[in-house]
Amino acid sequence: MADMTQTREPREWRFTKGHGTENDFVLLPDVDARLDLGEELVRRLADRHAGIGGDGVIRVVPTASSDDEFVRAQADRAAWFMDYRNADGSVAEMCGNGTRVFATYLRREGLETDDEFAIATRGGIKGIRFEGDLVATNMGPWRLAEPSTAEADGFDALVQLRSDGVDDEPWSALSVDMGNPHTVVALPESVDLAALDLFHAPQVRPVPPRGTNVEFVRVLGDGHIAMRVHERGVGETRSCGTGVCAAALATSFWAGHDEPTQDWTVDVLGGRLRVRGLLNHEVELAGPAALVADGVIDLSTL
Ligand SMILES: N[C@@H](CCC[C@H](N)C(=O)O)C(=O)O
């Protein structure tokens, strides 16, 4: 049984299930900010066997009602806060695919009515723009996590897959901060992206202080890459929006550009996303979002 002291609330709660390129989320509307979303409750909701199932859980809450002072300070620019949690119950600063699903939910529910609006996240304000079937998110500023090492070598980390006691050669990687941490691996030509076993968390050196999402990249052509990802707090997922941006930015950096000079198409297991460099060292992510189910869950059954 879940620890029901986490909810000061009736046990029945509305939810919506959605995904962005098959990175899937349980959305919990909390317009009165009554739901105390603890780690255990998140884990149980995200459980694919005993709960609803998802890579993450997103609480939809007024920005002004957040208990996080940094988030509350965004209330004059964004009415709604995307309170994102990973499937293991941990809190993350940002979720790129989540922003599109969250924005699509806000529009469907009439909580936002324009084609363009801002949302609040723990990683700051993100601008949303609906364009046809796609949703574009201004992901805001990005940065190299270790600029001096990266500028000197093109890489600042090593990544190794766990392989049943047999140590593989470590691969060179670049740490990119998208609000949340990423380590992007330049996969050697000889390695088959599709064959990687990403069941276990890759080992990253130096050990990132906040943990990291790890992306594996294969260049397919001019402005076109394929990526697989092991997400912090989740495991392998079929897509990661912040990871897709980090992968495109790292590939661009390795090609000698401090800012991306072209648009990138990124293929992930769950579909295709577009990354575009913006002015001021910012980056835009565009892709689809789908809301696939609505229901009511009795939280006491989890
Ligand atoms: N899937 C998300 C990223 C979710 C957070 C990540 N696992 C972390 O802990 O940083 C995306 O689309 O960006």
Q: How would you sum up this structure, described in words?
A:
This protein is of the alpha+beta class. It folds into two domains: 4-141 and 288-301, Diaminopimelate Epimerase, Chain A, domain 1, CATH 3.10.310; 144-273, Diaminopimelate Epimerase, Chain A, domain 1. It has helices spanning 39-46, 69-72, 96-108, 147-153, 241-254; strands at 12-20, 23-29, 56-62, 80-86, 116-121, 124-131, 134-141, 143-144, 157-160, 171-177, 181-186, 203-205, 213-221, 224-231, 235-237, 264-268, 271-278, 282-287, 290-298. Strands 5, 6, 7, 8, 9, 10, 11, 12, 13, 14, 15, 16, 17 and 18 form a 14-stranded mixed sheet that branches. It has a five-stranded mixed sheet with strand order 4-3-2-1-19, with helices on both faces. A hairpin with a 2-residue loop joins strand 13 (213-221) and strand 14. The longest helix is centred in the C-terminal third of the chain and has 14 residues, at 241-254. The termini are close together. The model is unreliable at 1-8 (pLDDT under 50). The ligand N[C@@H](CCC[C@H](N)C(=O)O)C(=O)O binds next to helix 3 and helix 5.
Using the alpha-carbon principal axes, give the shape.
Answer: globular
Report how far apart the termini are.
Answer: 6 Å
| Weakly predicted, low-confidence segments | 1-8
Overall average pLDDT: 94
What is the CATH homologous superfamily assignment of the largest domain? Diaminopimelate Epimerase, Chain A, domain 1
Structural class: alpha+beta
Strand content: 35-45%
Task: Give the helix level as a range of percent.
Answer: 10-25%
Note the total helix count.
5
Number of domains: 2
The number of strands is 19
CATH architecture of the largest domain: Roll
Q: Name the hetero compounds present.
A: ligand LBFN2T5F
- Tell me about the largest β-sheet: 14 strands, mixed
